[in-house]
Amino acid sequence: MKLISPTLVRHAALLLPLTLAGCSSAPEQPDLAVATTVQDWHTQTPQGVNLDPADAADPSSLATWWQHWQDPLLNQLVQQVLANNPSLASSGISYRLALLQAGVATAGFRPKGNLSTGISASESDNTDSTSANAGLNASWEIDLWGSRRAAREQADANVQKSLQELHAAQVSLIAEVVQAYVDLRLAQQNRGLTTESIRLRQQSYDLARWQRQAGLTTELQQAQALTLLRQTESSLPPYEQAELQALQQLQALAGGELGELSAALQTPQSLPSFSAPAGLTIPAEVLRQRPDVQAQEQAVRAQTEAVVLARHQRYPSLGLSGSLSASGETYSDVFDVDAVVARIAANLALVLFDGGVLKQAVRTQQLQLEQSLLAYRSKLLTAQEEVENALTRLASTQRQQQSFAQALASAELSASLSAQQFEAGLLSFSELLDAQTALLNARSALLGNHSNILGSWVQLYRSMGGGWQGLTLPALAFDAAGDTRE
Q1: How far apart are CA 466 and CA 289, in angstroms?
Q2: How confident is the model over 393-437, as pLDDT tens digits?
């Protein structure tokens, strides 16, 4: 057996200390936590919300916020959608792909080896010969500058970014489901309210027609009653269409798998009765807990490591390689110890000049890092705008609700008194119709504002990033172990 050259071993030993001298420190990550702290909210404080930055948020108030709506059917609907929504399942696959790609990205820094073997035969007029060979080759590029750590950190950041994008998709999906459910119940309530209005308008028209026949009123008053009746009837089809569209939207969100919930959803019910958890707190760092903000934060982290890797391309590289090979006339000769040849080599390489390609690559990555930081700042500003818009809308609708409730009470009293005075001959028929119109409008306005309040809560919880905490991703069909990652 041929031994490895002592001179080659000695030269390789001289190169190995470079692995210690070349260890680089970890790059300094930008401090993004400071930028996510809101010092002051430029908005009014709605009822049931605490905007004191010194207080801490209760994670449970965000995790399953829709359960505070006291609607068991809505809870079942959300779980049904989470289990069957195709877009969410696609986001889950994207996350799993990111995990696989991270493994591929870091595998390049591990030792590589391959085994080869072959046999050949030749024939001539005088002789026949055969030969066999086998070889084992291995190589490894030593991590002089910490490139392996940088690549691992970059891959992990990309995985976390994909995970946060999955969480963001889940937050949006839950908010969309709850809003569609509110729209469905609003359409059903409006349809019921319109049906009752049509009945009231029909009674008024019948009364006007009877009085016209008896000579107690004019044809104008009968025409006015008929006009109001037809106008009220014309408002019914849009509510029926809105109800159907809300049902179709929920069906699509659930991947066409509403199942037993379909019949329950088609049964008219009132709008959910929602009361926020006592003292819902919006902390100073509410923006940072949003999954889309965290995803952009991970993008900054990954790009920081990309700058490091680009710099390392300009540094020397050290590689080790070795091989075992043997050949002979037969395979038995190949396994003869004396036929084995061993080689080991060390290679130190440094780019002396490349026309500035590597330097420009570093600058490119630095500019992309600056761009990523600007995108992060833009995401923060958008997040703060969405939260404050939701707070402003909620505070406004809450104040309107009290006024609408008082207006309805007044309209009900006015309609009752108008009916009594009309029967006593103290009020004209036109004035009676006006009182009825005011009553119907007051009922519709109160119902619509109630829906707006619920929609404002949906927008607020969505803007705070609520909805993914504590929930698990449904297992894919090929996940034998049923892997569910939060």
Answers
A1: 9
A2: 999 999 999 899 999 999 999 989 988 888 888 888 888 888 988
Chain length of the chain: 486
Distance of CA 474 to the CA centre of its chain: 15
Q: What are residue 318's phi and psi, to 5 degrees?
A: -120, 125
**Does residue 398 sit within a domain?**
yes
325: in domain? no
pLDDT in tens, 64-110: 888 888 899 999 999 999 889 999 888 888 888 888 888 877 776 67
Mention every residue, 6+ apart, whose C-beta is less than 8 A from residue 88. 82, 166, 169, 170, 173, 473
Alpha carbons 446 and 403: distance in angstroms, whole number? 9
- State the residue range of the domain holding 43: 25-112+145-317+364-463
CATH code of the domain covering residue 412: 1.20.1600.10
Query: What's this model's pTM, rounded to 2 decimal places?
Result: 0.79
As a whole number of angstroms, the distance between CA 197 and CA 228 comes to 10
CB contact burial 119-146 (16+ within 10 A = b; e otherwise): eeeeeeeeeeeeebbbbbeeeebbbbbb
Report the number of distinct structural domains present in the chain. 1
Contact 293, 317 (CB under 8 A): no
* DSSP H stretches of helix in 34-146: 60-63, 72-84, 86-107
Contact 9, 344 (CB under 8 A): yes
Q: Is 126 among the domain residues? A: no
Least trusted range by pLDDT, from 185-189, 313-317, 367-371: 313-317
Compute the 3-state secondary structure of the chain and give helix, strand, coil in percent, each to the nearest 5.
60, 10, 25
Does 486 reside within a domain?
no
